[in-house]
Design goal:
Distance between the termini: 21 Å
Number of domains: 2
Helix content: 25-40%
Strand content: 15-25%
Strand order of the largest sheet: 1-2-6-3-7-17
CATH topology of the largest domain: Aminopeptidase
Number of strands: 18
Bound molecules: ligand BES, manganese (II) ion
CATH architecture of the largest domain: 3-Layer(aba) Sandwich
CATH superfamily of the largest domain: Zn peptidases
Structural class: alpha+beta
Order of helices and strands: HHEEEEEHEHEEEEHHHHEEEHEEHEHEEH
Largest sheet: 6 strands, mixed
Radius of gyration: 23 Å
Shape: globular
Length: 461
């Protein structure tokens, strides 16, 4: 089977995606709530037009989940497509070359044929929409040999808080053989890869309180603990000289890969010079004893995501703030449990606080790490599909990001997920000027039908 998209089909797919990208469905900010609901309606309508049945916008305690299906044969395997229609906030908006919700096509060095610039272009509206267009293509060309269910959520970027209950309550309706997700990336447009792992996440917020009010730094400076100084020192202590995390017990359950596995992984192309120059860095930094590729996939990390307190306005103000705050997240690898890690962090962070301050630690959302075994028929079907459309074999690759719901799918539905991502690390997801290559968008639409074909071949009952 060959999937050839006509110019007309490409144009329609592009123009329809533009409509969705114009809806500012930022889940983190209540000001955009109407738009988030509008995006759900848009997705439902688009599934309906594509030929899906039982299309439903199912409310949750937060934003709704769009469900749809097409059952073709009770004996055929069932694929559940998961994606998200919500996006990250666009800020800082002044750093965008074009407004984030007014999509434009522009060429880049990596995407000479053009890329769509808009918030959500790659993460995940563009990639999610490839599945709707591929589904429509399969129906039109009588090439759909699996049952399909769609489950598209609107709270992924804020931790999918209401998805766990949904998956548990709708367990039967979501019954399937494999879950298919395009919400990750690949190595390059010349060298595809399939994400075989996602890191877990533990997200904390800390507050250090010193004096009961902001103080004149001349009158009190040097005589009382300055919460910002203290917080900075405490954060600095969370890594040692080898850039290992100092929280006692943090590494206890970390999966250590064998030398052979690490060698196998090391075969995936990675150019450190390109990596540095793309980020304007003179050098990289990370845990001693591991390569950059390993540091960002199979090793756990701890990063400050934000830090604030004191005076940050124009000019100078001599002040000792009463409070200092930070948001700190840890990426976790297989066998680490996020609730356990959150507790270890809280315990340690309080233990290293000096006298004269109070420390408060709160845990935000978390997520469990995930791995797809490469002997799974879903992985094999994806492998064959990429091989056909790219002409080279894809590499399996552990990803550094997190999609917490994937481990939950396995726990509740007992089903594995296949991560067929088509984005690139350089697509600037979550950053200003997020984009998605037209090459990648069309390649996704033409690779997905092959996944269904091979998956049906490998799972005929
Ligand atoms: N699509 C990303 C995750 C991703 C991107 C995984 C690229 C692998 C490669 C997803 O939308 C995301 O941003 N996830 C968050 C976690 C969530 C709990 C906010 C993340 O990884 O920070
Ligand atoms: Mn995403
Ligand atoms: Mn994201």
């Amino acid at each position: 089977m060959q999937v050839h998209l006509t110019e007309e089909e490409k144009k329609n797919a592009r123009e329809e995606l533009f409509e969705l990208l114009k809806i500012p469905s930022v889940s983190a900010d209540p000001d955009y709530s109407e738009a988030v609901h509008e995006a759900a309606k848009w997705v439902a309508n688009s599934l309906d037009k594509a030929g899906a049945e039982q299309v439903e916008i199912i409310p949750t305690a937060g934003y709704p989940i769009v469900y749809a299906e097409k059952m073709i044969d009770p004996n055929a395997p069932t694929v559940l497509v998961y994606g998200h229609y919500d996006v990250q906030p666009p800020d800082p908006t002044e750093l965008w070359d074009n407004p984030p919700f007014e999509p434009v096509i522009q060429p880049t060095k990596i995407h000479p044929e053009g890329a769509i610039f808009a918030r959500g272009a790659c993460d995940d509206k563009g990639q999610m929409f490839m599945h709707i267009k591929a589904f429509e293509w399969m129906l039109r060309n009588h090439a759909l040999h699996c049952n399909v269910k769609f489950m598209i959520e609107g709270e992924e970027e804020v931790g999918s808080d209401n998805l766990e209950d949904f998956v548990k309550n709708y367990r039967e309706r979501l019954d399937c053989d494999v879950i298919l997700i395009s919400d990750t990336g690949m190595i390059s447009n010349q060298q595809p890869s399939i994400t075989t792992g996602l890191r877990g996440l533990s997200y904390m917020e800390v507050t250090v309180t010193g004096p009961n009010r902001d103080l004149h730094s001349g009158l009190y400076g040097g005589a009382v603990a300055n919460p910002i100084n203290v917080l900075a020192k405490m954060i600095a202590q969370l890594h040692d000289d080898q850039n290992r995390i100092t929280i006692p017990g943090f590494y206890d359950k970390v999966e250590e890969l064998s030398k052979k596995e690490r060698e196998e992984m090391g075969k995936a192309p990675f150019d450190l010079e390109d990596y540095k120059s793309a980020l304007d860095l003179s050098d990289v930094q990370g845990e001693e004893g591991y390569t950059t590729a390993e540091r960002q996939s199979i090793r756990p990390t701890l990063d400050v995501n934000g830090i604030w307190g004191g005076y940050t306005g124009e000019g100078a103000k001599t002040v000792i703030a009463s409070k200092a705050h930070a948001k700190i997240s840890m990426r976790l690898v297989p066998h680490q449990n996020w609730e356990e890690i959150s507790a270890l962090f809280a315990q340690h962070f309080k233990a290293i606080a000096p006298k004269g301050v109070r420390v408060e630690v709160n845990a935000h959302h978390g997520g469990t790490p995930y791995v797809t075994p490469i002997d799974h028929t879903g992985y094999q079907a994806a492998h064959k599909a990429y091989h056909d459309t790219f002409g080279v074999e894809p590499f399996p690759q552990r990803g550094g990001g997190s999609i917490p719901i994937v481990a939950l799918f396995e726990e509740v539905l007992n089903v594995k997920s296949v991560l067929m991502g088509f984005g690139l690390d350089s697509d600037a997801i979550h950053s200003p000027n997020e984009h998605f290559g037209l090459f990648n968008f069309y390649k996704g639409i033409s690779t997905i039908p092959l996944f269904y074909k091979y998956y049906a071949d490998l799972n005929r009952s």
